[in-house]
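ingest -> validate -> predict -> emit
validate: passed (alphabet ok, no gaps, 321 aa)
predict: started
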Amino acid sequence: MQLQTSATQNAESNQERRRHVFDLDDFSRAEIEEVLDTTESMKEILSREIKQVPTLRGKTIVNMFFEESTRTRISFELAARSLSAGVINFSGRGTSVEKGESLVDTVRTLQSLGADVLVIRHSQSGTPYLVAQHFQGSVINAGDGCHAHPTQALLDLFTIREKLGHIDQLKVVIIGDILHSRVARSNLWGLTKMGARVTLCAPPTLFGAARFWQAAWPTINISYNLDEALDGADVIMALRLQKERQQAGLLPSLREYSRFFALTDERLDYARDHALVMHPGPMNEGVEIMPEVALSSHSVISDQVANGVAVRMALLYLFTT
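emit:
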């Protein structure tokens, strides 16, 4: 009960500061820690026989997913239902969007129908910012283009802290399609604010201009050699490689990419004994990560999926108006 009272006070204080979750670039370290601490309380709720509390009873959460999703959409739905909120799942298919209605008009309609929170995933970067300009409730970014995926970054941070006890000064290596990854960008903001030492590793064609990354995050390291990057790593995060990168001429072949950048058992030997292996999913096994690594004792991929529900519960609890 004391935990609930304390969390409620924190939530009221936090709501004065922000209503929306667009990315982690404008989160302070204290705010991130508050989300992670609240997530621990939410995990306790999810461990009960009855995994539901009445905290958001009477609130309506609308999941607006204009991109296909399994993990993120379902975890937001479970999170909302666990807090007793009403949930509406919305996509462009079978709605007025197909008849030409603009996104802004759709948002205004949902506002009129009584929605309190819009959780939005969209292929266009910046869409959540536009939506927030026309919505009086809270907007949570569930992934926008190549820009950001803050809830994924927060569940990654929580999983690291849960498994290793802290984040500060850990060496975290992020491997793969850095250039196009919203997961990488949000994790860079979160990890660096929490004091991690981050190394990015990818082929040059999947980096873009190195000076861009170091201008935004001056403390990070950049490597084109995976074996060197993994030396002494505490956490290894493999990103999903989209096959259209090969079709766009950014890679000679998937086999070539796998030869130099796939996470294998042999390469894990360069990392520390307690190293965690992470992946945002869905995985291309045999391309960016080998099946035996994904199923090894180092892997916390299943924990990431499970923690996604608790993290999204924490965000709905803290930032729902």
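Strands lie at 60-65, 86-90, 117-122, 138-144, 171-175, 197-201, 221-223, 235-238, 276-278.
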